[in-house]
């Protein structure tokens, strides 16, 4: 087996610099955290979007409120490639602390707009520099020192807009959206943009290397982050109890959800059809989710890796006692301080078998904002159908960054509540039922909800020791029956979880497997491999655990399989190896784990390298 | 020793007002040691719910881990029960109460389950005022793991093995008062009459009720040198007052001398009567409660009775402005906003 791990190789193809590039560029803004550049970057991104050019934005921010370096990358691409591209075309260099490193990281032939005091032009001779006296220009718009700082950011929007051809009207429209029509704020920022544009027009050299031109590829589309999309899905999925504990990068999921619920889920009587609790920690959050799920609510929480670790004991109880609940895991880099604001796909194995004993969990893995919305609903249904905790594995890149999407369609499926016996059904059964009995042969038992008005409705919920009637039991045969049925229930789940998306190519010997946010870069990498090297590849995108037989079939059809993921050890690759038996020798791993989102060039280079090495 | 209760009712009838017998409130057979204080408490729970005419199907039982936490299987078999994980009963109870605010929740925990591993959840549940009767069956030791000290063990108390506890005890009643609990009581498993009246008042209370019950462990903490055994507790029980409970439908007037009795009306119209053995004690005063609890601790007394009562405090469910229909009963019409709502959200994002 061969593994390729992440090392950044910056190598711009020679041909690229010679051809003017229209609607294919990357703008990299380097600023200081807390300087208010977020609005400027949003306006820049949105203006390009409104000009009909597909665009994506990625915020690479520190774990800090103010003072540390932060970067924002905007990628515009006429073909709709929206993964991160590590090669920067235009650098907006505003941070003295990182300017040297930022400029040195540029490829020859790139453009660099910089704040005059940083004197970047002295650093290199193979980059085109545009020096702007931002402080002076801001002072001409406002004398207020706090405003000046914010306006400085809007001035760079004006400068870059003039240099690459972003239309003024679209920037004004984006400003209106950003400041929600607050005229005073809009006017002031228009002044700042105009100040930047006119300075660029009058005092900077022209460039024709990178251009934005109006096209028609974004009409009718929306821009949204994955956490907000998940929140909308959960709301339309009928979530009624939400618990959470703040943790980056998941906090904005529940915060969005609270906003949406307040707007759309207050009944005609002015009362809430939902309860939200900010818990004291993640243990309490999952405890409340299970309590609510047990008592019949549609319950969920959202967290990230460290929170998942804390939820582990309850996850096992939920699995054994068979209690529904949804847990969103917005994955990020590991424990404690350091890189909690950087993306990763490192919780796959942890979530798969979270807790003690023989546990196996259902997990859904969205790779787009649309799937965050869909799975927001689907997870609530599956949790109740299977009476078990259901996890959703998103990540920071998907959850916190803005993505373009078609608008979400209204759900066409009813809300599914699973097997619940109410008073009428208990009367039909004359009270004869067993909480943990496999009556239907699908290993999914029936349950009753507390408060059901029938003398035989009640049962006692415990962890591992119970018989089919939910009576206390330590008998070996009862325990074995219970865990064997749980394994069969997991088998049943294979028919219900979202199937992988498979693209097979005639004659392809290489099969690529990915999941989550790796998808965008993988699709682009396949395009690069085909266009540049004539290599066809098959592609299977996983969308859930348990793995289904599709994976085995896909692996069997290819000579080599590359599992591409954003963690150090290739966790999904290991699960696939367990699944495919003899074929496991075909599995190779392409692993990106720097804290930054994976990019296409890394994947295509790695595939080529593995092929050359011969595996 | 003075009687701990005020006589308010005559004979207990064979059937309660909703036509159920006491046996309808029974649970499974206890597997605890013979003479365990916990079983005495379970008996009073059965009696209190029976006499309060609560339909067992409306009740929901929660517990954590330990001997105490096994007891919900030994009362109210017709109620759903949830034996959660160690120290985390409060969060499960909170979730269930959110899902269905019409349930009547009772949680049983122990001193290990609440004062050590579960202290965080205990405190936050008190702070939220989740409507729940929260009983701590307090014996100062971990019974199910064979007799280690817990965090409520008194300084200087001795294990059977001779080990002496040299750390100060946590007073869960004082802690609950400090955190704003609207109903705080201490009972003794050896005083069932007082216990049942405290329980009835708790069932009538809308909000969290903390009831710390000294409940001797006959196997690991009932010997000489123990400060949580039967003998020691009997000798050191100090009554704060005599307690009586009068149902809302009862026309009972209790005679008393002016200034000798305090009556508190609960939100269901029932009345709690407290005959002032300690004359100037005001059970709605945080300062009185804390002062008296600390004084009792210093004097080595086990102070029992309703230490603090403030029935008007809003419960967590009241604060959440929940719809009248329990969340768990909401149908798709209420749970899924209309297509126009989605259209509006999408337009905002374009």
Please describe what this structure looks like.
The complex is a heterodimer of chains A (615) and B (350). Chain A is an alpha/beta fold. Chain A folds into 4 domains: 3-211, Pyruvate-ferredoxin oxidoreductase, PFOR, domain III (Pyruvate-ferredoxin Oxidoreductase, domain 3), CATH 3.40.920; 224-405, 3-Layer(aba) Sandwich (Rossmann fold), CATH 3.40.50.970; 419-497, no CATH class; 501-613, 3-Layer(aba) Sandwich (Rossmann fold), CATH 3.40.50.920. Chain A is 39% helix and 18% strand. Chain A is built from 21 helices and 24 strands. In chain A, the strands form 5 sheets. A 7-stranded mixed β-sheet of chain A has the order 12-11-13-14-16-15-22, sandwiched between helices. In chain A, helix 14 links the parallel strand 15 and strand 16 (389-395). Chain A is globular. Mean pLDDT of chain A is 94; it is low at 6-17. Helix content of chain B is 30%, strand content 19%. With 350 residues, chain B is an alpha/beta fold. Chain B has a single domain, classed as Thiamin diphosphate (ThDP)-binding fold, Pyr/PP domains (Rossmann fold). Chain B is globular. The model of chain B has no long low-confidence stretch (mean pLDDT 94). An 8-stranded mixed β-sheet of chain B has the order 2-1-3-4-8-7-13-9, with helices on both faces. Chain B has a 3-stranded antiparallel β-sheet with strand order 10-12-11. Chain B has a two-stranded antiparallel ribbon with strand order 5-6. The termini of chain B are far apart. In chain B, a hairpin with a 5-residue loop joins strand 11 and strand 12 (271-276). Chains A and B meet through strand 10, helix 8, helix 9, helix 10 and helix 12 of A and strand 2, helix 3, helix 5, helix 11 and helix 12 of B.
């Amino acid at each position: 087996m061969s593994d390729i791990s992440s090392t950044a190789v910056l190598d711009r193809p020679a041909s690229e610099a010679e051809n003017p590039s229209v609607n294919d560029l990357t703008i990299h803004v380097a600023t200081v955290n807390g300087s208010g550049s977020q609005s400027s970057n949003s306006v820049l991104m949105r203006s390009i979007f409104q000009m009909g050019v597909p665009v994506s934005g990625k915020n690479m921010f520190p774990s800090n409120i103010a003072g540390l370096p932060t970067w924002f990358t905007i990628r515009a691409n006429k073909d709709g490639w929206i993964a991160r591209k590590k090669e920067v075309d235009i650098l907006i260099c505003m941070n003295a602390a990182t300017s040297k490193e930022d400029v040195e990281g540029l490829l020859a032939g790139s453009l660099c707009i910089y704040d005059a005091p940083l004197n970047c032009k002295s650093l290199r001779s193979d980059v085109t520099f545009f020096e702007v006296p931002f402080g002076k220009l801001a002072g001409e718009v406002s004398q207020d020192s706090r405003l000046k700082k914010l306006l400085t950011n809007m001035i760079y929007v004006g400068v870059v807009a003039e240099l690459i051809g972003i239309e003024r009207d679209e920037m004004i429209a984006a400003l209106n959206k950003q400041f929600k029509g607050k005229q005073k704020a809009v006017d002031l920022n228009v002044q700042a943009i105009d100040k930047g544009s006119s300075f660029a027009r009058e005092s900077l050299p022209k460039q024709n290397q990178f251009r934005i031109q109006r096209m028609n590829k974004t009409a009718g589309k929306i821009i949204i982050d994955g956490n907000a999309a998940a929140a909308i899905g959960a709301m339309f999925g009928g979530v009624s109890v939400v618990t959470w504990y703040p943790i980056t990068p998941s906090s904005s999921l529940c915060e969005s959800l609270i906003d949406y619920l307040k707007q759309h889920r207050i009944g005609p009587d002015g009362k809430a059809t939902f309860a939200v609790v900010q818990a004291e920690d993640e243990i309490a959050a999952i405890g409340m989710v299970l309590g609510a799920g047990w008592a019949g609510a549609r319950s969920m929480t959202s967290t990230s890796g460290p929170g998942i670790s804390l939820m582990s004991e309850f996850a096992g109880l939920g699995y054994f006692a068979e209690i529904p609940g949804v847990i969103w895991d917005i994955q990020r880099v590991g424990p404690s301080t350091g890189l909690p604001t950087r993306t990763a796909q490192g919780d796959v194995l942890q979530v798969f078998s979270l807790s003690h004993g023989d546990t196996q969990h259902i997990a859904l893995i969205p790779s787009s904002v649309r799937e965050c919305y869909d799975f927001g609903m689907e997870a609530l249904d599956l949790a109740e159908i299977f009476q078990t905790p259901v996890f959703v594995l998103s990540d920071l890149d998907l959850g916190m960054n803005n993505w373009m999407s078609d608008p979400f369609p209204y759900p066409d499926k009813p809300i599914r509540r699973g097997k619940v016996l109410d008073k009428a059904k208990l009367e039909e059964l004359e009270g004869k039922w067993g909480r943990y009995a496999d009556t239907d042969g699908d290993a999914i038992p029936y349950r009753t909800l507390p408060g059901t008005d029938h003398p035989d409705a009640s049962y006692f919920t415990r962890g591992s020791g119970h018989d089919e009637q939910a009576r206390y039991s330590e008998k070996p045969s009862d325990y074995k029956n219970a865990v064997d049925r749980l394994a069969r229930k997991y088998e049943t789940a294979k028919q219900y979880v979202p199937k992988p998306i498979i693209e097979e190519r005639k004659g392809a010997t290489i099969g690529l497997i990915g999941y989550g946010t790796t998808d965008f870069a993988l699709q682009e990498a396949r395009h690069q491999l085909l266009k540049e090297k004539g290599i066809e590849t098959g592609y299977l995108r996983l969308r859930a655990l348990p793995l289904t037989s599709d994976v085995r079939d896909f692996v069997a059809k290819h000579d080599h399989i590359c599992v591409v993921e954003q963690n150090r050890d290739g966790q999904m690759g290991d699960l696939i190896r367990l699944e495919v038996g003899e074929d496991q020798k075909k599995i190779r791993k392409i692993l990106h784990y720097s804290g930054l989102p994976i990019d296409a060039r890394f994947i295509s280079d790695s595939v080529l390298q593995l092929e050359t090495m011969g595996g | 020793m003075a009687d701990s209760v005020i006589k308010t009712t005559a004979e207990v009838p064979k059937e309660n007002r909703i036509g159920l017998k006491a046996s309808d409130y029974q649970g499974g057979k206890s597997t605890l040691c013979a003479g365990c204080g916990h079983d005495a408490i379970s008996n009073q729970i059965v009696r209190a719910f029976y006499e309060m005419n609560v339909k067992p199907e409306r009740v929901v039982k929660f517990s954590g881990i330990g001997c105490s936490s096994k007891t919900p299987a030994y009362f109210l078999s017709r109620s759903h029960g949830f034996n959660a994980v160690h120290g985390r009963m409060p969060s499960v109870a909170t979730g269930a109460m959110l899902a269905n605010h019409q349930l009547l929740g009772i949680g049983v925990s122990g001193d290990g389950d609440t004062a050590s591993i579960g202290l965080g959840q205990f405190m936050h549940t008190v702070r939220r005022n989740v409507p729940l009767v929260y009983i701590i069956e307090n014996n100062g030791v971990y019974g199910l793991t064979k007799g280690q000290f817990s965090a409520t063990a008194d300084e200087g108390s001795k294990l059977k093995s001779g080990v002496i506890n040299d750390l100060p005890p946590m007073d869960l009643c004082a802690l609950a008062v400090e955190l704003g609990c609207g109903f705080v009581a201490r009972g003794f498993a050896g005083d069932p009459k007082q216990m049942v009246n405290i329980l009835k008042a708790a069932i009538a209370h809308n909000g969290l009720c903390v009831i710390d019950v000294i409940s001797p462990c006959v196997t690991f903490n009932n010997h000489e040198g123990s400060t949580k055994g039967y003998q020691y507790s009997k000798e050191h029980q100090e009554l704060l007052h005599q307690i009586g409970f009068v149902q809302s439908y009862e026309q009972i007037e209790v005679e008393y001398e002016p200034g000798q009795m305090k009556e508190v009306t609960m939100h269901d119209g029932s009345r709690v009567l407290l005959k002032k053995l300690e004359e100037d004690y005001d059970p709605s005063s945080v300062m009185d409660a804390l002062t008296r609890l600390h004084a009792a601790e210093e004097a080595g007394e086990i102070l029992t009775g309703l230490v603090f009562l403030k029935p008007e405090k809003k419960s967590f469910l009241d604060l959440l402005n929940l719809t009248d229909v329990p969340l768990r009963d909401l149908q798709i019409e209420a749970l899924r906003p209309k297509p126009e709502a989605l259209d509006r959200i999408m337009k905002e994002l374009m």
